[in-house]
Amino acid sequence: MKESTRRSKNFFMKKNIRVVVGMSGGVDSSVSAYLLKEQGYEVIGVTMQIWQDKDEEAVRVEGGCCSLAAVNDARRVANKIGIKYYVMNFKDVFKEKVIDYFVDEYLKGRTPNPCIACNKYIKFEELLKRAWMIDAYYVATGHYAICEYDEERGRYLLKKSVDTSKDQTYVLYNLTQTQLEHILFPLGKYKKDEVRELAKNLGLPVASKPDSQEICFVTDNDYGKFIRENAKEEIKPGEFRDTRGRFLGYHKGIIHYTIGQRKGLGISAGKPLYVVDIDAENNVVVLGYGDEVYGDELISYNNNFISIDKLEKEMRVKAKIRYTAKEQDAVIRPLEDGKVFVKFDNPQRAITPGQSVVFYDGDIVVGGGIIERKVR
Amino acid sequence: MDRIYLDNAATTPVDKRVLEAMLPYYSDVFGNPSSLYSYGQEAKKAIEEAREKVAKALGADADEIYFTSGGSESDNWALKGVAYALKDKGNHIITTEIEHPAVLNTCRYLEKEGFKVTYLPVDEYGLVKPEDLKKAITDKTILVSIMFANNEIGTIEPIEELVKIAHEKNVYFHTDAVQAVGNIPIDVKKLDVDLLSLSAHKIYGPKGVGALYIKKGIKIHSLIQGGTQEKNRRAGTENVPGIVGLGEAIELITKNLDSHINKLTFLRDKLINGILEKIPYVRLNGHPTKRLPGNVNVSFEFVDGESLILNLDMAGICASSGSACTSGSLEPSHVLLAIGHSKELARGSLRLTIGKDNTEEDIDKVLEVLPQIIKRLRSISQIV
After folding, report:
1. Cβ atoms within 10 A of the Cβ of A141, count?
2. Do A133 and B330 touch (CB under 8 A)?
3. Fewer beta carbons below 10 Å: N end or C end of chain B?
4. How far apart are CA B86 and CA B74, in angstroms?
5. Angle between helices B305-314 and B360-383 (to 10 degrees)
């Protein structure tokens, strides 16, 4: 096995070839499981049951990435490949770490990325723990990313996938050295088309399934409704104001808005208006003109670094502020409380609190954090 | 790797003798029992012989035994059939918090249909308190349904006493005896129950067949409408091989019931005592003596039941924990919550149910493997 360069720092478990593959029933995780089996691993497929009781009926009818239909798909794939397969219960921890977080962030006027929370707390913490409990050294997923041990630095590195259009390192920046030691990303060196082709040639029953795009637990894609149903407090309408505090009209509740949003405001002005700030405390959504949506400085918190142990001095990086954003030149420097100050060379559109900023050095993920606020 | 099967409360293998008895009724004696020609009549005869065997095992009359598709159908029929037949008399049903889903979810369905259901609590051993039943009965109560023995923790309920209480108030009494039949001597006349559900695949018979005992004179509607089978009470061409299998299985198990019970009880107590001795932070769930002869149910602190079951599976031991949900993942058991466990502790439970084919070596093997697995799981949960 080519993994021989890795050395185990793990103090309670001997390295072995057993790997738990998180299987969603989709193409990517199915092919991952297949590839690992081909490479000689002892593969165990696991679907994490994360959907909550009350929407069991909804997911049964409508699907969604982790629904019963997904379980059936994953089970069929596991049978086809010839691997063991289990469904494990992650309902409580998913509710606490992902759903509640998602709802709370919106209530605070922020725009969270629940996939990042899920990767951090569920897939690579809780699932890895369960993998260890069944004596599997590794956890694998169908993410497009590369995990490698770098002898020179003496660290595990997270690198962009070969298929850069599919690269998912943005949602993986929270991985720790211990986690990376136990992670396999079999798709990192494949292109999406190759993966689909592979699935087709193997006759995997999921070869033609579309990519999942939306948030898996909001089955009808109506975030507003989901938050209203899951929030402990009532969602109240409030005021739109301009950047100088002047009243512009009424909004439906801050959870319905995100920074940079233009559509659906219901306010007419001479020039197009955009959401530039959300003041949850006063239940105010601040609107501004095009240039007011831009900013070039931000502060991030809950930072995690991968290619370096710690950010000790100023560093030039490429940074991106949302999953779909392009990387931009920036300088990062540590602040006293573990936070990071990010200064972009050029202004960025819609720096959104709650989203993550991820730093790159070429193909290597330096680290990242959650955007606390735009500075200016 | 040799497999050790310790989930006999979930299902049992079909006894070879039962299978032998069933086989002619697939391709040879395949006639429809409702037909007039002899092929059909032979099948009909086989059904009636099976009915007599079931009746004999329960101390019932043959015409009080109705064949169904299994325990769940029997439970559904008993509850819905009585509820609809007596809805003019009252709308109140009494059951317990620890019933099998076949009873619990039927009750929830009936609640949606306008019936009122009282779910009696149980004590720390899973026993229903007779005085609770007494207090719960009102002049609107039409049916009491209490399981004979619990499928998860094995507790045997004081059915005879509970039946007396119901009958003092002229209320029908149904018992789900799916776990009890073949593990406890049952005499429906002595117990005086009005309805009793049983299933073949828990007693080394085939899946997909069961029976409902309906005492003569009990008012009950049919669940399945159609032809005139089962004295016009349960339509559908009979599952002849299955029914023959049920008859054979129940006859075999009741013939040697005493020695069966003795063997299982011996293995059970050896397993329980071994676990309690070898593993710290463990407790026995259910009653120490009023329990099914093959049932072991224990909770381990600081252990995730799901991981435990998977580890045992990898060691070749088939066991269960909690109840599997639709997807196949595990939920904390409603029974363990009802006997006062926290959600966390309920998650760390393990059910091992012994059957007639288990040996002392099986138990020794479990007592060798289980402590190691528990130790390892605990060490991981401490680290992470």
Report:
1. 25
2. no
3. N
4. 18
5. 130
Closest Cα in chain A to B310: A134
Of the listed ranges A18-22, A33-37, A87-91, the one predicted with least confidence:
A87-91
Interchain contact, A135 vs B311, CB within 8 Å: yes
Q: ipTM strictly over 0.90? A: no
Q: What value does the mean pLDDT take over residues A2-31?
A: 74
Q: Which of residues 54-113 of A touch B (CB under 8 A)?
A: 56, 68, 71, 86-89
Are A134 and B379 in contact (CB < 8 Å)? no
Task: Compute the Cα dihedral for B35, B40, B41, B44 and give only its sign.
Answer: negative
Taking CB atoms and an 8 Å limit, are B329 and A130 in contact across chains? Answer: no
Q: What is the pLDDT averaged over residues A272-301? A: 92
DSSP A126: I
In degrees, rounded to 5, the angle at the alpha carbon of residue B220 between the alpha carbons of residues B215 and B225 is: 120
pLDDT(B37) > 90: no
**What residues of B are in the A interface, CB distance below 8 Å?**
304, 306-307, 310-311, 314, 325-331, 376-377, 379-381, 383-384
Q: What is the mean pLDDT of residues A97-101?
A: 93
- Residue type (1 letter), A372: E
Q: Find the angle CA(B214)-CA(B217)-CA(B220) to the nearest 5 degrees.
A: 60
**Mean pLDDT computed over every residue of chain B:** 94
User: What distance in Å separates residue A52's CA from the closest CA in chain B?
Assistant: 12
B333 min Cα distance to partner chain A (Å): 13
Give the pLDDT confidence of B190-243 residue by residue, as tens digits: 999 999 999 999 999 999 999 999 999 999 999 999 999 999 999 999 999 999
- Helix or strand or coil: residue A293? helix
A179-200 pLDDT, tens digit per residue, is 999 999 999 999 999 999 999 9
Mean pLDDT to the nearest integer, A103-127: 92
Length of chain A: 376
Yes or no, beta carbons of B307 and A133 under 8 Å apart: yes
Mean pLDDT of chain A: 88
Residues of A with active-site annotation: 118, 216
Work out the end-to-end distance of chain B between its first and last CA atoms, rounded to an integer number of angstroms: 31
Compare CB distances from A87 to B307, B329, B381 and report the shortest one's residue.
Answer: B329
Q: How confident is the model at residue B379 (pLDDT cuts 50, 70, 90)?
A: confident
Cα A124–Cα A129–Cα A130 angle in degrees, nearest 5: 110
Chain centre distance of CA A362: 20
What is the Cα–Cα distance from A344 to A366, expressed in whole angstroms? Answer: 16
pLDDT band at A12 (very low <50, low <70, confident <90, very high): low
Question: What contacts B130, CB < 8 A, 6 or more positions away?
Answer: B158, B161, B162, B165
Mean pLDDT along residues A80-92: 91
Helix (H) or strand (E) run with residue A69 in it: helix A68-81
Tell me if residue A290 falls in helix, strand or coil: helix
pLDDT value at A79 more than 90:
yes
Which has the closest alpha carbon to A163: A181, A190, A182, A185?
A190
The shortest C-alpha distance from B307 to chain A (Å) reads: 6
- pLDDT (mean) for A320-344: 94
Choose, from B217, B289, B325, B383, the residue flagged as catalytic.
B325
**A132/B310 Cβ within 8 A:** no
CA distance A341 to A346: 15
Helix (H) or strand (E) holding A330: strand A328-334
Q: Which residues of A touch B327 (CB under 8 A)?
A: 47, 49, 68, 71, 87
